[in-house]
Amino acid sequence: QPNWRNQKELLNRFGY
C-alpha cells in the first residue's frame, strides 16, 4: 500500500 497519493501532494506542496 504505497503512499503515492501522499507523495503527489508533497510534490505539489514543494512545487517539484
Give a brief rundown of this model.
This protein is mainly alpha-helical and 16 residues long. The protein contains one helix and no strands.
What does this structure look like?
- The chain is built from one helix and no strands.
- The chain has one helix spanning 4-14.
- It is mainly α and 16 residues long.
- Keywords: Aminoacyl-tRNA synthetase, Ligase.
- This is Class II glycyl-tRNA synthetase.
Observed structural traits:
16 residues, mainly alpha, 0% strand
Measured distance between first and last alpha carbons:
23 Å
Cα-atom Rg, whole angstroms? 8 Å
Strand content: under 5%
Backbone shape = rod-shaped
N to C succession of SSEs: H
Identify low-pLDDT runs. Answer: none
Give the overall pLDDT as a whole number.
Answer: 82
Helicity level: 55-70%
In terms of quaternary structure, what is this? single chain
Structural class of the secondary elements? mainly alpha
Total helices: the number is: 1
Largest sheet: none
What is the number of strand segments?
A: 0
Keywords: Aminoacyl-tRNA synthetase, Ligase
GO molecular function, one term: aminoacyl-tRNA ligase activity
Protein name: Class II glycyl-tRNA synthetase
